[in-house]
Design brief:
CATH superfamily of the largest domain: FAD/NAD(P)-binding domain
CATH architecture of the largest domain: 3-Layer(bba) Sandwich
Shape: globular
CATH topology of the largest domain: FAD/NAD(P)-binding domain
Radius of gyration: 21 Å
Bound molecules: flavin-adenine dinucleotide
Low-confidence stretches: none
Number of helices: 11
Largest sheet: 8 strands, mixed
Mean pLDDT: 93
Number of domains: 2
Helix content: 25-40%
Distance between the termini: 53 Å
Length: 395
């Protein structure tokens, strides 16, 4: 098979990129290792930035495909001593977050892509990518064996363990960092306790509460780096989340159908391209879930690269924008990493060893929450960075 662009991975980044290329008439094939039924079933993102919704709407993906309706206006920080409610939508001139579960976004963009005649090759795992001056070759394995796709460009949208990124080893640099603690990621079968996000910076550790769907609420629980779901039976999770959130026995009897563990890893790959191969989304950079930024960055990459590739394969045959893709995206990626790293330290102070917490880290965390309570300038900066609103240069 021969095409202009092979997109590896049908996550949010791959599907939005492919949707935009298909609409512009660029010959594109998506290769996905999961089956159609498995696609997007893992519980992941739910918070979508204001600027992401504006961007997707401007690209024609709002409304009929993605009807962003559920808004988040406020978040709350709970410490042992105080409760700080930040109305970030009010602080940004009425610009909220949107709540849209990632699996729903993936399902809808995938359906629209296929309705428009797009091709997704399911159950095809990419195992190798090679390139030379004339073409790139993508090897996949699936139920019918091995096949090779010949293409002009390969875009790795294949997430954290990217096979496409591995094919660039030696041509790019991966800057990695790992935090010592982990989060349990919990789906609770209950309506939200309140209509906003709660970040509990409790002396026993971090816990959070977030809206997802009317009958599903996302909970997070910070645990030591050597623990996972096996150490946390459901009654223990209910009790500990209730204690840290300060909601007592509100979770008693609530089903927790999904409990996963998440390592707090970060990475930025520089540059995010080499020759005919580009990296987009989690394949290029990883960010902790603090602040809800990963999918937003992935979608920002996808839209920027789509414009570059449409110019390259459109009537002008101009590759300038695609060549500049990394340089264009990296400043926003580092700014977002900086925000998320700071935010992780506001909501959690990792244990030094076992359950032994670092008093200095705990003090810093209290200090930041208290500053958010008292300093209107900090609150305003936070509101813009958190909701994903570019500050108005006029103030
Ligand atoms: C618990 C949790 C909560 C999060 N919350 C938020 C949030 O609120 N807001 C936010 O913005 N972000 C959030 N994120 C981050 C967000 O989920 C990711 O950044 C997002 O999934 C990145 O999208 P992607 O398309 O780059 O990669 P992925 O979603 O990982 O998609 C990669 C795709 O590639 C496929 N694939 C992988 N390897 C191969 C291969 N070799 N061959 C073919 N296909 C392959 C996979 O099956 C998958 O379909 C959260 C993440 C987690 C884990």
């Amino acid at each position: 098979m021969r095409t202009d662009v092979v997109v590896v991975g049908a996550g949010p980044a791959g599907l939005v990129l492919a949707w935009l290329l298909q609409r512009a008439g660029v010959a594109t094939v998506v290769v996905e290792s999961q089956s159609r039924d498995e696609l997007g079933t893992a519980p992941k993102a739910g918070i979508v930035e204001y600027r992401t919704v504006q961007m997707l709407t401007a690209e024609g993906l709002g409304g009929a495909v993605l009807d962003f309706a559920a808004e988040n206006h406020r978040c709350e920080f709970r410490t042992a001593d105080e409760t700080v409610l930040v109305d970030y939508a009010a602080l940004t001139g009425g610009r909220p977050h949107y709540v849209f579960p990632q699996h729903e976004l993936v399902a809808r963009v995938a359906a629209s892509f296929r309705d428009e005649g797009g091709t997704v090759l399911f159950q095809q795992r990419v195992t190798a990518v090679e390139q030379d001056a004339h073409e790139a070759r993508v090897t996949t394995t699936g139920p019918e064996g091995t096949q090779e796709l010949v293409t002009d460009v390969v875009v790795g949208c294949d997430g954290a363990g990217s096979a496409v990124a591995r094919s660039l080893a030696g041509d790019v640099t991966q800057h990695d960092h790992r935090h010592p603690h982990r989060f349990l990621v919990i789906s609770a079968a209950m309506p939200p306790l309140v209509d906003h996000t709660i970040y509990a910076a409790h002396p026993r550790g971090y816990a959070a509460h977030m809206r997802r769907l009317p009958e599903v609420t996302r909970l997070y629980l910070e645990v030591p780096g050597d623990q996972g779901p096996a150490d946390w039976p459901v009654p223990r999770i209910r009790e500990e989340v209730g204690r840290r959130l300060g909601v007592g026995r509100a979770l008693e009897g609530v089903e927790l159908p999904e409990v996963d563990v998440l390592d707090l890893r970060t990475r930025v790959t520089t540059p995010m391209q080499h020759g005919r191969v580009f990296l987009v989304g989690d394949a290029a950079h990883l960010i902790t879930p603090a602040g809800g930024k990963g999918m937003n960055l992935a979608l920002g990459d996808a839209v920027e690269l789509a414009h570059g590739l449409v110019e390259r394969y459109g009537p002008t045959r101009d590759g300038t924008r695609a060549e500049a893709y990394s340089t264009t995206r990296l400043p926003a990626i580092w700014r977002t990493q900086a925000f998320s790293d700071w935010f992780l330290r506001v909501i959690s102070a990792p244990p030094v060893t076992g359950d032994d917490r670092d008093g200095f880290g705990l003090g810093l965390r209290e200090g930041w929450v208290s500053a958010l309570q008292r300093d209107p300038l900090l609150r305003r900066w936070f509101a813009h960075a958190y909701a994903g609103v570019d500050p108005d240069p006029e103030g």
